[in-house]
Amino acid sequence: MLGFLKRPIVLTTDINVNVVVLTGVGLLSRLWRLTYPRAVVFDEVYYGQYISFYMKRVFFLDDSGPPFGHMLLALGGYLGGFDGNFVWNRIGAEYSSNVPVWSLRLLPALAGAFSVPMAYQIVSELHFSHCAAMGAALLMLIENALITQSRLMLLESVLIFFNLLAVLSFLKFSNCQKHSPFCLSWWFWLALTGVSCSCAVGIKYMGVFTYLLVLSVAAVHAWHLIGDRTLSNVGAVSASACMAVSVCVFCHLLARAVALLVVPAVLYVLFFYVHLILLYRSGPHDQIMSSAFQASLEGGLSRITQGQPLEVAFGSQVTLKNVFGKPLPCWLHSHQNTYPMIYENGRGSSHQQQVTCYPFKDVNNWWIIKDPGRHQLVVSSPPRPVRHGDVVQLVHGMTTRFLNTHDVAAPLTPHSQEVSCYVDYNISMPAQNLWRLEIVNRESDTDVWKTILSEVRFVHVNTSAILKLSGAHLPDWGFRQLEVVGEKLPRGYHGSTAWNVEEHRYGQSQEQKERELELHSPTQVDFSRNLSFMARFSELQWRMLTLRSDDSEHKYSSTPLEWVTLDTNIAYWLHPRSSAQIHLLGNVVIWASGGLATAVYTLLFLWYLLRRRRQICDLPEDAWQRWVLAGAVCAGGWAVNYLPFFLMEKTLFLYHYLPALSFQILLLPVVLQHVNDHLCRSQLQRNLLSALVVAWCSSACHVSNALRPLTYGDKELSPDELKALRWKNSWDILIRKH
Amino acid sequence: MPPATGGGLTGSELRARRGRCGPQTARPASRDVAAEAAAPSPKRSAVSSQRLEAAGRWALLALVTLLSFATRFHRLEEPRHICWDETHFGKMGSYYINRTFFFDVHPPLGKMLIGLAGYLSGYDGTFLFQKPGDKYEHHSYMGMRGFCAFLGSWLIPFAYLTVLDLSKSLPAALLTAALLTFDTGCLTLSQYILLDPILMFFIMAAMLSMVKYNSCADRPFSAPWWFWLTLTGISLAGALGVKFVGLFIILQVGLNTISDLWHLLGDLSLSLVTVGKHLTARILCLIVLPLALYMATFAIHFMVLNKSGPGDGFFSSAFQSRLSGNNLHNASVPEHLAYGSVITVKNFRMAIGYLHSHRHLYPEGIGARQQQVTTYLHKDYNNLWIIKKHNTNSDPLDPSFPVEFVRHGDIIRLEHKETSRNLHSHYHEAPLTRKHYQVTGYGINGTGDSNDFWRIEVVNRKFGNRIKVLRSRIRFIHLVTGCVLGSSGKVLPRWGWEQLEVTCTPYLKETLNSIWNVEDHINPKLPNISLDVLQPSFPEILLESHMVMIRGNNGLKPKDNEFTSKPWHWPINYQGLRFSGINDTDFRVYLLGNPVVWWLNLLSIALYLLSGSVLAIAMQRGAQLPAEVEGLSQVLLRGGGQVLLGWMLHYFPFFLMGRILYFHHYFPAMLFSSMLTGILWDTLLRLCAWSVASSRLARSIHVVGVLSLLLGTAYSFYLFHPLAYGMVGPLAQDPQSPMAGLRWLESWDF
């Protein structure tokens, strides 16, 4: 116990100087003049606004990815003391002095810098030579596109960092597995794999691809583990030994399942938890969310709804918001104007008062819930709450007309019924203004109609049509408001048929004049309600996944096929006066040889595979295993991060290719070493290959250096020099006309 | 080196289909065990009993087939009006009979067969098939319905034989047949003029012949082997020729073939030459033959449909010149564009139309107040433009000037013939697409400014630098702003007469919206040539029709504010489709799966995954299983795995599709899922029976289990048959209705 008294305490550390040096040059290349240019560069204009929202604690919704990446950027701003006061509206705008550019750009730059030593480590962990590992790190270091992307407030470099970290820690873990399972470092690397996978997913949904890759390699390993007879033939004689072995295998599987499935899921939810904790104020994206969500934010809707009575009663005055809210969030509305007698296409209407859905707050959005059996429009005391299945009438507050529908075709959706506020013209068209109330979410909640929380449907008693937002914009006679119809053939639940009460007060005034005054006055009475985190999380997640932005054109958008050949670039920034400029532009030599290496790997792999099937082994077993694992990680990583883009419909940019590229860079030295070890038969060939590799490496360095002015944007170039850099016709390099 | 364990990526040998191939997985006993376990009578010494057994099998097959035909043809003539999509496919059948050209998003084979069936049964193609509910009256429609029902009836014998071959067990096959026969959904879908029975027929035929040729593997290159292999290829061509969903079965056959070849390659007793022969045979029968047949269907399609019809507008001008009755047919125009020619310019993207202008200005507040330029789908005098040199305004038609052809890269001016204004663009934003520039008509009598200059570029320069009528794809680049003339495809408001917006886009990417071609061409100074010379070749037509089909499919997007069917609704039978009738007085047919069958299928998939993974893990752990269990687990893992793969391939891709989806898309997958149910329950019951010691009890467990499943489905069919055969009377929401007790889910609206 007191061993330290007998023996001295010895600490031995190995320092891999390579790693230290690589980290150093990585940092140098990424951090050098980081604050230059002191202006908004390309997508900084996009991420910057979210950083400002975090600083001001204002809620926002971004469908491009989960919030972890945005939070990391915001952390930089927080540490740098950013107050969020900057208008992010124009690329090239100068930063004001309150923007801590250095600390905002620091995190992506660090992530980019650490990718360099990680490339070294990954190739080493794949059991390739130290030389190959240095090669991978060097390529990572001099790849111009990676440098550009990591020196700005952008998320790709952070994503690449976590992708590589996930792969590295998985490799470390599986190397631990061979000699000492369940040791401390085994646990550490396993847990780190799960954590970095969820971080990658938390930054961009693209991270899912690498996560799936790691999962499937882990699954294959686990399957071999199950079939590992060395674990089972210990003492096949005794049942208890057999049992113990099974338990051991089970523990292995359980540990993996927890670390690779449970931990990432929990962390992912945690990101959202922090996100929602941080952003508690209402902001510009409120409108997309449901009323309940909006009411949970400070300011905005909650300022209005705070203190409303909870249960809707007969005589309540309410505004009704459509739950689906597409194409626009809007409220059930009516106004004095009537439907035109004859539409442009010659069909007729009932000529009664228009009912629409209106995307702005308005006094005409108020409706009174009336009991068909009573005449009063006030809430009795005690209030009689409305329940699921009750029949109600809806009275428009300002015109006191009844919501009505009848067998007349709707103006724009002729297979549905027209909805109107009933005007008695004394022609044989009786009022049909009874609606049965259906509370859609009565199972999760109560069957009493609640403000904000209940989603209700109005089913017409006479025709069983359902009140619905059709999504069409009425023409000029309807003031371009949205059309509301009675759906005759509901095919199932859809959000466009559900409504919820947003503003609510108990009506007190008997007289119409008083009531109008009452409608104009704000609601009050004190009552607060909160939405649970899980409800808010699931709503936010759902909106993020279903939000569709329709803007599909961009000057610098490109297609996946153009990425491999580097036929495209993105101009990130141009100096306001001189010709200094920053481009996202890759190192042509690396991109071309990366593509070549992938092709060579695939062909060689297939060739070996087919020959092994015929029992011809070109490679020794361990070399083959290494070759397969390296391919699964590097070539597989490239494929999973690249091929899915062919199926995507969104606007794509060159920077979407960078994660795939980072895996391709790892593959290059692997293939080269393989050629050297197994395909070169004589020393002469090996020497020749080495010479070629040196030449190739120096050309890559040369290209990197030549493109450096466009990567850092720190040097003014003459038009002739710029023209000389335009190696491909499709590259868009900006040349000022004088 | 051990051959089996090498390589993490080579995959587990466990799912290997046949024991024969990998020496390490060879379990020669398995097949016999399974067969033995399946054979109903164990006495096989007597030849007569064997013969009797064979006769019994044939009789059973005949019974299954008969029952299937009886259910499908029962009340086939009801209802005597158009149901659901009959309005499309019946109409398209009529088009074949009338030989008018039309456009559809599916390949032509299915509709061609419907047309053929109608033609042979005496239907004359005169019925209009306007909308669901129209009465057929005296028109003969039974031929077409009968044909679909005929193909639909074969599904059940095919499934029966497939399962019999995979499991070697009669009860499993019987169970599958019962599930499909008594499924109201399959029944309904087979009884109308639709593509689905034809598609499913080919899918099941391909599956059956694939399974059959797999089981001929011990006699390669024998006559039955060739027969089944060829038949697989033919059925694949059929499936793809009906709908693109056929790609999924092609994928399945492809995967099966790859694993097959993989095992042959690993069999060292076969020489490489033999393996090469195997490979060639498969390439020939599974790639070359189906491709040839598929193209042949298109050749016939284009040959039969030679009259102009409703589909013309979807295709390019060059394509239309093939169709008799189209104004481009047999027309003659000058071949190359010259200065002074009067032309119409058509957008290359379908359903955009011709470049158009008219004497109306853009309204106040929308760009510059100049003359509108739009695209218009119909032929009109306002579509005519004169092509002029940018710098001279002399009349090029003056006979003293020599003819000068327009070439790639020339700077030109386009003058609108009716109003003499020039095509013009400038830095004002376009009316609807704010990022683009406005395009207007500007100038008086052809005199404008430098914003009227356009550079003409030919995209496909294989015809040389001149611009060829119909065939050259051209772009117009605005000289001053550098933008490209295009149509956004958006509909202008009423001030623009609801024609489509024309813009000048600063994004120079080549998209179809910014590519145009010259259609009409008038130039008296040039000799006319017949357009027949310009007719596209068959490969070009084939390619174009596929592009149009793909674009058509992508264009079928669901609407935001409508309830749409989602793939996850399907296996749980969430909601059906109304084939006919809405109100209580109508004759109503409702496409809905028999819930007992469907929920059993759903349960079976879960059970299969559970039992399959338990068995697979046990085998991977090297557990010593008794021979009988070993055999059963092989059936479950190989046969069941094959069918499960079919289900997954026919179901999961729908989750990725952006187009609008319907409930009936699930039915091919449902066939596979029913086969899985048959195999699973039979195997599970056998395993249960095996675990019981006493043999009599064991036998009775199996018999009782299978029988109760058979009777259960039959009874549920008795309950739900009105869905398929039609019902009149109150809706099921009404407690008075006889169907009221059967509305188990609120979402069913029959």
From TrEMBL, chain A:
Domain of life: Eukaryota
Reactions catalysed according to its record: a di-trans,poly-cis-dolichyl beta-D-mannosyl phosphate + L-seryl-[protein] = 3-O-(alpha-D-mannosyl)-L-seryl-[protein] + a di-trans,poly-cis-dolichyl phosphate + H(+); a di-trans,poly-cis-dolichyl beta-D-mannosyl phosphate + L-threonyl-[protein] = 3-O-(alpha-D-mannosyl)-L-threonyl-[protein] + a di-trans,poly-cis-dolichyl phosphate + H(+)
Any one GO molecular function term: dolichyl-phosphate-mannose-protein mannosyltransferase activity
Compartment list: Endoplasmic reticulum membrane
Principal location class: endoplasmic reticulum
Enzyme Commission numbers on file: 2.4.1.109
Ranges where the MIR domain occurs: 309-372, 383-440, 444-504
Assigned GO CC terms: acrosomal vesicle; dolichyl-phosphate-mannose-protein mannosyltransferase complex; sarcoplasmic reticulum
Single GO BP term: extracellular matrix organization
InterPro entries: ArnT-like_N, MIR_dom_sf, MIR_motif, PMT-like, PMT_4TMC
Membrane-related topology note: Multi-pass membrane protein
Transmembrane residue ranges: 9-32, 68-88, 100-120, 126-147, 154-174, 186-203, 208-226, 232-251, 258-280, 584-607, 627-648, 654-675
Keyword Coiled coil recorded: no
Alphabetized UniProt keyword annotations: Endoplasmic reticulum, Glycosyltransferase, Membrane, Repeat, Transferase, Transmembrane, Transmembrane helix
Pathway(s) per entry: Protein modification; protein glycosylation
Family note: Belongs to the glycosyltransferase 39 family.
Functional note: Transfers mannose from Dol-P-mannose to Ser or Thr residues on proteins. Transfers mannosyl residues to the hydroxyl group of serine or threonine residues. Coexpression of both POMT1 and POMT2 is necessary for enzyme activity, expression of either POMT1 or POMT2 alone is insufficient. Essentially dedicated to O-mannosylation of alpha-DAG1 and few other proteins but not of cadherins and protocaherins.
Name of protein: Dolichyl-phosphate-mannose--protein mannosyltransferase
Organism, scientific name: Microcebus murinus (Gray mouse lemur)
Gene: POMT1
Automatic annotation (TrEMBL), chain B:
Extent of Gly residues compositional bias: 1-10
Name this polypeptide is given: Dolichyl-phosphate-mannose--protein mannosyltransferase
A GO CC term assigned to this protein in UniProt: nucleoplasm
Main localisation: endoplasmic reticulum
Annotated membrane topology: Multi-pass membrane protein
Enzyme category, top tier: transferase
Intracellular or extracellular location(s): Endoplasmic reticulum membrane
Pathway: Protein modification; protein glycosylation
Family: Belongs to the glycosyltransferase 39 family.
UniProt keyword list: Endoplasmic reticulum, Glycosyltransferase, Membrane, Repeat, Transferase, Transmembrane, Transmembrane helix
MIR domain segment(s): 334-390, 403-459, 464-521
GO molecular function: dolichyl-phosphate-mannose-protein mannosyltransferase activity
Transmembrane segments: 144-163, 194-213, 225-251, 283-304, 596-618, 643-663, 669-689, 701-720
Any one GO BP annotation for this protein: basement membrane organization
Repeat in keyword set: yes
EC numbers for this chain: 2.4.1.109
Pfam family, one: PMT_4TMC
InterPro entries: ArnT-like_N, MIR_dom_sf, MIR_motif, PMT-like, PMT_4TMC
Cross-referenced PANTHER family: DOLICHYL-PHOSPHATE-MANNOSE--PROTEIN MANNOSYLTRANSFERASE, PROTEIN O-MANNOSYL-TRANSFERASE 2
Role according to the record: Transfers mannose from Dol-P-mannose to Ser or Thr residues on proteins.
Catalytic activity: a di-trans,poly-cis-dolichyl beta-D-mannosyl phosphate + L-seryl-[protein] = 3-O-(alpha-D-mannosyl)-L-seryl-[protein] + a di-trans,poly-cis-dolichyl phosphate + H(+); a di-trans,poly-cis-dolichyl beta-D-mannosyl phosphate + L-threonyl-[protein] = 3-O-(alpha-D-mannosyl)-L-threonyl-[protein] + a di-trans,poly-cis-dolichyl phosphate + H(+)
Chain spans, region Disordered: 1-46
Lineage, broadest ranks: Eukaryota, Metazoa, Chordata, Craniata, Vertebrata
Domain of life: Eukaryota
Gene3D superfamilies, sorted: 2.80.10.50
